[in-house]
């Protein structure tokens, strides 16, 4: 036995190493949250340790996405004035050399050529069509003369074309930039990757389903790998792919997925130093599914993960098995070699000319001069006659090189002609210029390929934006500077109403109009109001995490009926149960094999009514259904359990729940007889189930006589209580722990309120009504609905946090604690929770029962101001939709926005967070009165009340990071809507209640749909990195960044543009590096 231990230890070490390598490989893949609580995230989050541009390159290598808009779109921005010529000049100046050439009578500088190429393109044409283009655009004489001038250039002599270059490139990249399956597809024209993807999509879709499928996948309790291994043996896909002995091969796979990975790597013979990249290449094939698996595998408390475990190791194990089998079959059939890394490398190395010739034929095509000397039938034979192709490649190599040289010169002529025309030079000027000058021009163009323009275009766009943006603040900054210098401050009279809105960009317009209509004052704060909580809505069986995903809530808040609503609450639950039963019945009937045929005849008309109503008259249909719901639903007043229960109260709550269960069981089994069991007898049964009382007292005999029990019946009843209803010690301990998490202590409540008020700089001059304004969105037939809700509340409605915060702030004990810390809230100040619907601009008021009767007049004025602000904001927002509803009335705007919220054919109920550009942290005076067009996150902050930077640190490490995630998701969904976005909603199907995919089978769509970020085919969202403007001393900002690695990565690697507004000089400074600030005027 002792001799076996080293082997066991070695195996365990290898397994751990493989798991760690898979984890490292997954850094390129970002987490994907289920769409019920859509979380905006950076799709390149795992690469934030790299500079922004490098991360885009790395992601492009594995995932294949574009990191910038097409150059043509940036050029449209130039035409529209979005990118200024000065921004382009300053951006390219750092790239230019102090050189010039003379073309004709004109002196052309290097910078001028860069700007010309930047704005007009390089004029590059594919080499094999360049000659044809020249024939149409240039006389034969001029073309020949230019070619002759280029023939003798040193660049022509140095340029070497060789078929061997394919071998050099592919050998270098095999295993590092593409898998063996990818090599087969690219070289042999197979579809191995598609087949593997189809299989993994099939298995992932079935396994990860969360109650959507009527016929769930069996064997899921065996884990993803274990369940697949059982079911795949009966799957016909493998034999249809041509894999021999399919069932036996599945059975012989090791039971542990890490062992299966090791076996596949050994079979493929992948070098160990390539394993991380190789795993990454496989994970990046389906970044949506792997992103969701990555997220779910890290959620240890997630009920679906606990029931049906899955992780990326199990995923990789299955994927590598398919690859090794399909690659082996393909390489044997088409090449006559094993499907291994060394065999493929040897195949390329030993036949350089034949392989190069075959790749040219497969990828680029061959010129007629080359084809004339070849036997084309060789290219389609199986196995490929590589020795003969090698000989023919060697024989035709000179002809092929001559053709490529001619094509290259034709391409260069096209570039020179294009450049000359853009520089107002003639073809004759080129012909008469020295060859050396033409060579310099070509070298400048070659060293500035259009593929490298993206980062420079982005920089120019950002430079143009920030130049105009900071100038908008000039009037307000002048007033602030004069006020600060004079020491004069505005009078501190009480505003009509004060409101704390979410920092969401959609709140900016509403805040502005709300301030205008009634002399109201507003603040901006993260929409969860600094209160991380887990919320359970009354009548719901599920809880939602009401906080950013960066935080984990430790406290539970429940919505409960108010004391006087007991009877209404019972009726509410009865009707809810009735509706639930009806919904379940309807669902079961629809999913049954037979009943749908009967249902069409019986109740098809009912669905037809809904179909025609929602299609032809959605607003009328919504009003009708709302009227029906008002008469069917029971309206009840509720409150939140903000207060933490004492231990004795928690124990009594658990006991009450147990007694209710026992009464239910007795009545269920014995009818009215069970209802006659005394309270103390029920309590005794409860304690017996908990082993607190023995079953041998006289009371037990009385109960047994009443219910005609034997001792065995008594014992069986207790066992059922423990087994089926969880009335046992362990369950009670867990339940007590859960209950004691409910609510907050008075000290905790005071802390949350104080922190929020101090961050806002809102510590005095409180109005009679203070709104805590959460927000939500209303839309129909929209899988992305939660993406329009409050991101700070985990993609949920924000009103529960607003209600909790208001309840805390209204509590007298909390105010007493706040007063001890210097924050005195007047007795007549009442905090009122409300919720802004960002689609309709309607505002709903909550907990009106708590508003003092003395505030009715204030409440009426508030309702008027909110309604008017909503009307104005709707009119402003309406002008931004593609329909361009300009010049409409306020009433029309209200009706149109309402219609968008109920129209199930509407793919764009609202623009959401699109077009956002900046995150401003500072006093409201900095932006008051400015129309920021709903493009800016506004977080209130007064640096004068935060000398240590404690509260600024909270802002920079939570809301700012969330804003960056939002920004990056919109950025990448815009620059590549297919890879990083989710394409068009038209093709979307919901899968497994976790996400959407194209049609019936595709990767999970990981980003935002085109309808969110594009206006038809033009970007509505302007993809730029977030501008963060903080009104605070630069040394304070720098110190906070230095303490947090995440901030050092975001700022140092240029994922955000950080700008400080210096309180002393009121000048803007841009953080050029982690150690250096530059005055923005100098940077611009």
Describe the structure.
With 1084 residues, the chain is of the alpha/beta class. Among the domains are: 166-349, no CATH class; 502-553 and 744-1077, no CATH class; 563-636, no CATH class; 647-740, no CATH class. Helix content is 55%, strand content 9%. It has 48 helices and 21 strands. The protein has a six-stranded mixed β-sheet with strand order 13-12-18-19-20-21. A five-stranded mixed β-sheet has the order 4-3-9-10-11, with helices on both faces. β16 (1014-1015) and β17 form a beta hairpin. α12 (223-231) crosses α19 (312-334), α38 (746-760) packs across α40 (812-820) and α41 packs across α42. The longest helix is centred in the middle third of the chain and has 37 residues, at 386-422. 41% of the residues are buried.
Q: What is this structure, in a nutshell?
A:
With 1084 residues, the chain is α/β, with parallel strands linked by helices. The protein is 55% helix and 9% strand. Helix 32 packs across helix 34 (679-689).
Could you give the topology of this structure?
Elements: H1 5-25, H2 52-62, H3 71-80, H4 85-93, E1 100-103, E2 106-109, H5 110-120, H6 127-137, H7 140-151, H8 154-158, H9 164-173, H10 180-188, H11 192-207, H12 223-231, H13 237-240, H14 246-251, H15 257-268, H16 275-283, H17 287-297, H18 303-307, H19 312-334, H20 341-350, H21 352-363, H22 368-371, H23 386-422, H24 427-432, H25 435-446, H26 454-472, H27 474-486, E3 498-502, H28 505-518, E4 521-525, E5 533-536, E6 543-546, E7 556-561, H29 566-591, H30 595-616, H31 618-632, E8 638-640, H32 647-670, H33 672-675, H34 679-689, H35 698-707, H36 711-725, H37 729-740, H38 746-760, E9 769-776, H39 799-810, H40 812-820, E10 830-837, E11 843-845, H41 856-878, H42 890-902, E12 918-922, E13 936-940, H43 950-957, H44 959-975, E14 988-991, E15 995-998, H45 1010-1013, E16 1014-1015, E17 1018-1019, E18 1027-1031, H46 1034-1042, H47 1045-1052, E19 1057-1061, E20 1068-1073, E21 1076-1079, H48 1080-1083
Parallel strand pairs: 3-4, 3-9, 5-7, 9-10, 12-13, 12-18, 18-19
Antiparallel strand pairs: 1-2, 5-6, 7-8, 10-11, 14-15, 16-17, 19-20, 20-21
């Amino acid at each position: 036995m002792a001799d076996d231990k080293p082997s066991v230890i070695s195996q365990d070490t290898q397994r751990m190493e493989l798991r760690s390598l898979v984890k490292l490989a997954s850094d390129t893949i970002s987490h994907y949250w289920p769409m019920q609580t859509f979380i905006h995230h950076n799709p390149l989050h795992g690469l934030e340790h790299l500079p922004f541009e490098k991360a885009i390159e790395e992601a492009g290598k594995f995932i294949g996405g574009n990191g910038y808009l097409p150059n043509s779109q940036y050029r449209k921005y130039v035409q529209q004035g979005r990118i200024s010529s000065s921004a382009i000049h300053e951006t390219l100046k750092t790239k230019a050399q102090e050189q010039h050439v003379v073309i004709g009578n004109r002196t052309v500088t290097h910078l001028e050529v860069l700007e010309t190429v930047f704005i007009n393109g390089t004029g590059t044409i594919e080499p094999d069509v360049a000659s044809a283009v020249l024939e149409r655009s240039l006389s034969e004489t001029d073309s020949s003369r230019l070619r002759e001038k280029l023939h003798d250039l040193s660049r022509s002599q140095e340029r070497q074309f060789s078929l061997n270059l394919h071998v050099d490139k592919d050998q270098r990249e095999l295993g590092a930039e593409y898998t063996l399956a990818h090599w087969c597809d690219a070289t042999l024209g197979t579809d191995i990757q598609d087949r593997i993807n189809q299989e993994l999509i099939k298995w992932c879709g079935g396994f990860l389903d969360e109650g959507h499928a009527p016929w769930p996948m069996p064997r899921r309790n065996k884990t993803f790998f274990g369940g697949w291994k059982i079911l795949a043996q009966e799957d016909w896909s493998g034999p249809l792919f041509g894999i021999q002995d399919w069932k036996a091969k599945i059975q012989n796979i090791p039971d542990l997925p890490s062992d299966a990975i090791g076996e596949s790597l050994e079979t493929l013979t992948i070098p160990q130093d390539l394993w991380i990249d190789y795993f990454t290449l496989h994970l990046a094939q389906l970044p949506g599914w792997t992103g969701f698996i990555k997220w779910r595998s890290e959620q240890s408390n997630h009920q679906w993960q606990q029931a049906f475990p899955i992780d990326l190791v199990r995923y990789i194990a299955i994927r590598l098995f398919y690859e090794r089998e399909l690659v082996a079959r393909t390489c044997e059939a088409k090449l006559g070699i094993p499907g291994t890394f060394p065999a493929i490398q040897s195949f390329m190395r030993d036949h350089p000319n034949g392989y190069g010739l075959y790749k040219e034929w497969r990828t680029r095509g061959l010129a007629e001069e080359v084809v004339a000397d070849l036997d084309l039938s060789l290219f389609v034979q199986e196995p490929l006659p590589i020795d003969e192709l090698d000989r023919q490649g060697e024989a035709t190599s000179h002809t092929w090189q001559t053709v490529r040289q001619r094509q290259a010169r034709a391409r260069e002529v096209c570039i020179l002609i294009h450049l000359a025309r853009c520089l107002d030079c003639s073809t004759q000027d080129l012909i008469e210029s020295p060859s050396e000058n033409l060579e310099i021009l070509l070298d400048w163009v070659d060293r500035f390929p259009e593929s490298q323009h993206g980062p420079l275009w982005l920089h120019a766009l950002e430079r143009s934006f920030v130049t105009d943006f900071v100038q908008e603040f000039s009037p307000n900054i002048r007033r602030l500077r004069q006020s600060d210098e004079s020491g004069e401050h505005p009078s501190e009279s009480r505003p009509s109403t004060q409101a704390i809105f979410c920092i969401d960009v959609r709140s900016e317009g509403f805040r502005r109009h709300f301030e205008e209509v009634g002399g109201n004052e507003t603040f901006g704060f993260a929409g969860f109001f600094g209160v991380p909580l887990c919320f359970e809505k009354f009548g719901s069986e599920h809880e939602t995490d009401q906080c950013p995903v960066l935080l984990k809530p430790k406290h539970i808040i429940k919505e409960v009926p108010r004391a006087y609503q007991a009877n209404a609450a019972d009726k509410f639950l009865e009707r809810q149960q009735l509706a639930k039963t009806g919904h379940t019945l309807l669902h079961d009937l629809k999913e049954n094999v037979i009943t749908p045929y009967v249902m069409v005849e019986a109740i098809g008309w009912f669905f037809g009514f809904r179909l025609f109503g929602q299609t032809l008259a959605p607003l009328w249909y919504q009003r009708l259904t709302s009227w029906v719901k008002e008469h069917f639903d029971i309206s009840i007043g509720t409150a939140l359990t903000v207060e933490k229960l004492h231990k004795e109260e928690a124990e009594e709550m658990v006991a009450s729940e147990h007694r209710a269960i026992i009464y239910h069981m007795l009545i269920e089994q014995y009818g009215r007889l069970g209802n006659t069991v005394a309270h103390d007898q029920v309590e005794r049964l409860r304690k017996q189930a908990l082993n607190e009382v023995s079953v041998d007292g006289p009371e037990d005999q009385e109960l047994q006589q009443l219910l005609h029990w034997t001792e065995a019946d008594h014992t069986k009843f207790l066992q059922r209580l423990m087994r089926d209803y969880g009335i046992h010690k362990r369950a009670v301990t867990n339940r007590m722990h859960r209950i004691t998490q409910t609510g907050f202590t008075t000290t905790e409540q005071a802390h949350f309120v104080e922190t929020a008020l101090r961050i806002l700089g809102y510590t005095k001059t409180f109005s009679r009504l203070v709104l805590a304004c959460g927000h939500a969105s209303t839309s129909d037939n929209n899988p992305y609905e939660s993406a329009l809700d409050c991101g700070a509340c985990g993609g949920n409605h924000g009103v529960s946090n607003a209600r909790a915060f208001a309840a805390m702030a209204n509590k007298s004990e909390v105010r007493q604690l706040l007063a001890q810390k210097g924050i005195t809230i007047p007795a007549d100040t009442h905090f009122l929770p409300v919720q802004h619907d960002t689609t309709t601009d309607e505002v709903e008021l909550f907990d009106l029962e708590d508003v003092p009767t003395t505030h009715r007049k204030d409440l009426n004025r508030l309702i008027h101001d909110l309604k008017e602000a909503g009307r104005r904001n709707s009119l402003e927002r309406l002008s931004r939709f593609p329909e361009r509803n300009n010049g409409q009335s306020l009433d029309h705007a209200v009706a149109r926005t309402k219609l968008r919220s109920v129209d199930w054919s509407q793919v764009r109920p609202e623009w959401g967070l699109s077009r956002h550009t900046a995150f401003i942290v500072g006093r409201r005076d900095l932006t008051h009165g400015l129309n920021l067009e709903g493009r800016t996150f506004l977080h209130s902050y007064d640096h004068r009340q935060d000398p240590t930077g404690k509260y600024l640190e909270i802002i920079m490490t939570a809301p700012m990071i969330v804003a960056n995630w939002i920004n990056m998701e919109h950025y990448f969904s815009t620059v590549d809507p297919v890879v990083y976005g989710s394409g068009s909603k038209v093709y979307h199907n919901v899968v497994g209640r976790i996400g959407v995919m194209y049609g019936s089978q595709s990767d999970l769509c990981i980003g935002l749909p085109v309808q969110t970020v594009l206006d038809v085919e033009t970007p509505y969202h302007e993809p730029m990195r977030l501008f963060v403007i903080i009104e605070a001393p630069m040394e304070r900002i720098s110190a906070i960044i230095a303490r947090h690695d995440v901030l050092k990565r975001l700022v140092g690697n240029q994922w955000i543009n950080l700008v400080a507004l210096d309180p002393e000089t009121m000048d803007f400074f841009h953080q050029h590096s982690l150690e250096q600030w530059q005055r923005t005027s100098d940077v611009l």
